[in-house]
Amino acid sequence: MRATLEEIRRASLEAIESVIDTEALEALRVKYLGKKGELTAVLKSMGGLDPAERPVMGQLANEVRAKIEDAISSKAADLKRKLMEQKLALEAVDVTIPGTKDDFGKKHPLTIVWDEAVDIFTGMGFTVAEGPEVELSEYNFTKLNTPDGHPARERSDTFYLTDDDSVCLRTQTSPVQVHVMETTRPPIRIISPGGVYRKDEVDATHSPIFHQMEGLVVDKGITMGDLKGTLNTLVKRLYGPEAVTRFRPHHFPFTEPSCEVDIQCFECHGEGCRVCKGEGWIELLGAGMVHPRVLAGCGIDPDVYSGFAFGVGLERMAMRRFNISDLRLLYENDVRFLGQF
Ligand code: DAH
User: Is-contact 256 288, C-beta < 8 A?
Assistant: First the structure.
């Protein structure tokens, strides 16, 4: 029996030593120490020994068992540590590998000029006002001194939403002027960018939806000089300090006097070329001094206060800024085009 026990000790320790995973180690535990294991079998046969030999063999068997248990648990710890080391090596972060770049997309060219214009005006002390795109004709026309029967009200030009033409998609951002003047007292200094709608056929310069930015300043002693100074600042900030403007008389129902502002063609410097269609100037925006009737209609005394207003097309501004020749490109959502700006 001694020889058997010694052999079990030798063989088991050798097997445990060379094991490389926990499953194999568990199998060895079962093989030697399990209910039907080799050592267990020896212990069971102890009853057949000479009574004098029993305690000696019992002690040896216990020694062998303890040795095997020790070997198994130290091997188990060993395997666990190795596994952890492997895992750590596998998950190690190489901080020297170049990163991958996320594609965040880009601002739409329209948004770029929109944000720029807002930036320029807020820098001059303006705040941003908002108005509804579904508008009462009362605000889009009447309160802007545009009487019934005025050609701008034609059904062929305006999207009306009711049979009596009392509600429409606003055709301009100018009604925001009225909303602001009805709800706030001077001094007023606001801009209002947003969508406007007209029944235009789609072509290189027209779209049934486009965007404008309205501006309005009302205070005591506001003059055409303030209008010119403000708009010249806008133009020079947008197009550079050399940009030259021209204020040309025009007519709008809600301003008196009214003007259109042109910028000298930067291609030919006024000579006339393909870009400016031979004019030497490019039309930029409409403006004027707020009509006394519009002020009075909003409860602002035109004998005390005066103001100027302007409306600029944002698509036109973006097209000029980025040399885009076809308005449709702004709406076709082709990322190959939009990714350039
Ligand atoms: N609302 C005008 C348009 O859509 C633009 C405009 C002209 C706005 C003169 C103004 C202004 O505020 O004073 O053509």
Answer: yes
